[in-house]
Amino acid sequence: MSITAIILTYNEALHLERAIRSIQPFVSQVCVIDSGSTDGTIEIATRQGAEVHTHAFINQAKQFQWALDNVQLLGDWVLRLDADEIIEPDLAREIAQKLPQLQADVTGVNLKRKHIFMNRWVRHGGRYPLLMLRLFRRGKGRIEDRWMDEHITVIDGRTITFEGGFADHNLNDLTYFTDKHNKYATREAIEVLNQRLDLFARGDTLKAHSTSPQASFKRWAKERVYNHIPFTVSAALYFLWRYIFQLGFLDGRSGLVYHFLQGYWYRFLVGSKLMEMERGIAHLNDKQAILEELTRLTGHSLMTEVRRKKNE
Which of helix, strand or coil describes residue 292? Predict the structure, then answer.
């Protein structure tokens, strides 16, 4: 049972060799989709035996879907792996042993992701396990076309969960962390605004049967409940829920840094950017004019989304 891994990269020289080495025992093809790295990422990928394909980056969802549509994937199964993630040895063995034995109606496998922050495992605050569908039969999976919080879903069949270790362990510093989440916040604010105004088509195939039930419930809770509460209230409540009721305080000082930044500061930043965008377009009624202004405000070209929605 052969597996193709797809890894999206941009200046990932710090992580890429580690990621590829973690999957070499069970993956037969590694496809790196690079968006213009200048730090030696491509050379590392080539040295590790990966195929390198170059494509201009718009967002994670479009980049991954481009790979599914344009790269010759040879494996029976497809694995999505971020460059800063690691498949640990116990999960590598589990995949190699169990995958060939799965029934034909199993088309997707959820993995239990752990988050390593400041070199410590964030065990509490609802951060473990995060169930993510990352392994699927070729031709049976697709990725939601969203600007943020995109998930892989299966077209038909059912999903199961493997138990082995799967870690998100970024080795960069806090400056990188906050810069990355600042960019994430812009993209998530675009998603929330689109949910409210229906500016362009939204990928929403996340159902309990098509991915992990956990991911499906979190999407429902965020879009049906959380996004309708003023962010000045919801961000604080979310942090308190994670840090106190979900025992985030047990993660120590580094855990406090993580839960505060990711569970409060980031959520507050998303709400603040959404408020800024809504004020910036308040005087506009035409959708095209709104998207032109949002393109100016966010730096993301959103006019292609209008054309895509018209074509649909």
Answer: helix
Q: Which two tokens stand for residue 31?
A: 């496809």
First vs last C-alpha separation in the chain: 36
User: What span, in angstroms and rounded, lies between the C-alpha atoms of 222 and 233?
Assistant: 14
Domain that holds residue 283: 174-311
> Quick one: 88 and 128 in the same domain?
yes
Phi, psi of 102 (to 5 degrees): -70, 145
pLDDT in tens, 108-131: 999 999 999 999 999 999 999 999
Query: Based on the domain organization, do 157 and 233 belong to the same domain?
Result: no
Cβ neighbours of residue 259 closer than 8 Å, sequence gap 6 or more: 122, 125, 239, 242, 243, 248, 251
CA–CA separation, 18 and 135 (whole Å)? 19
pLDDT at 21: 97
Phi-psi group of 49: left, alpha or beta (phi > 0 → left; psi -120 to 50 → alpha; rest → beta): left
Asked if 140 contacts 156 with a C-beta cutoff of 8 angstroms, the reply is yes
Of all helices (H) and strands (E), which one includes residue 121?
Answer: strand 120-122
Q: Mean pLDDT of all residues in the chain?
A: 93
43-81 confidence digits (pLDDT tens):
999 999 999 999 999 999 999 999 999 999 999 999 999
At residue 64, the 3 state secondary structure works out as helix
Mean pLDDT for 6-15 is: 98
